[in-house]
Amino acid sequence: MKGKSKGSKEKTKSFFLTTPIYYVNDRPHIGQAYTTIATDVLVGFKRLAQGKSFFLTGTDEHGSKVFESAQKANLETQNFCDVNSGYFKKLWEKLQIRYDYFVRTTDKRHEEAIGVFLEKLFHSKTEKGEPVIYKGEYKGLYCLGCEKFITEKELVDGLCPDHQRKPQVLSEKNYFFRLSAYLPQIKEKILKDEIKILPEERKKEVLGLFKQNLEDFSISREKVKWGITLPFDPGQKVYVWVDALQNYITAIGYGD
């Protein structure tokens, strides 16, 4: 084995691991504790092995489901989020969870970063010169529990299989992300492992989605009351999944 030249340093890769960010529509449950403990154990090992690691957790606090839960609890929505997010922090303290950052999607830092992210998309064009974000109309079945539109074929006896409730029929004007313009590029990157998906069966599952006629998707909601205001249209709220998923980059500095 050849030795390293004097003064050379081996580059240490940083390790970033996150739990899901947890919905604040209720208190923490045992499944969330299990996930967070497992994450803490793995990050602890990485800290011992290579030192530079970052452990993120937090709470997802926007959307109709949270608003509805706050109404049932007879609390102002932000107060409801503060109380339930606090339960997660207290539990992680009792379990001695050693996270580096606890993100809340109602934090000003996160909300401002979402504005930066969406403004950038709104003013972007595809390779064909089409706007990446455009306004359209969507009509479909909406499950409040899932916080998303679902199809007829996903229903079981007319009900959402996950929440056992009948979806609402919604029709509204939203802003859409032009996913169709990027599908070939995304698929190629997955096949080449430039976007790495593990385990292998999950990679096959994701690739299978490309055979299902994937469409452009809505990034905003017209009738939702509790959410981040869309920066380029104050009459719309950012769709909760668009808002929440960006926490993994806003927590480490995107938009600062």
Strand content range: 15-25%
Number of domains: 2
Question: How would a crystallographer describe the biggest sheet?
Answer: 4 strands, parallel
Number of helices: 8
Report the C-alpha radius of gyration, rounded: 21 Å
Alpha carbon gap, first and last residue: 44 Å
| Overall average pLDDT | 92
The topology string of helices and strands comes to EEHEHHEHEEEHHEEEHH
CATH architecture of the largest domain: Beta Complex
Predict the CATH topology of the largest domain.
Methionyl-trna Synthetase, domain 2
Question: Could you outline the blueprint of secondary structure elements for this entry?
Answer:
Blueprint: E1 15-18, E2 22-23, H1 30-50, E3 53-60, H2 64-72, H3 77-94, E4 101-104, H4 108-122, E5 133-143, E6 148-150, E7 168-177, H5 183-191, H6 200-209, E8 217-218, E9 220-221, E10 237-238, H7 240-245, H8 247-250
Parallel strand pairs: 1-3, 2-3, 3-4
Antiparallel strand pairs: 5-6, 5-7, 7-8, 9-10
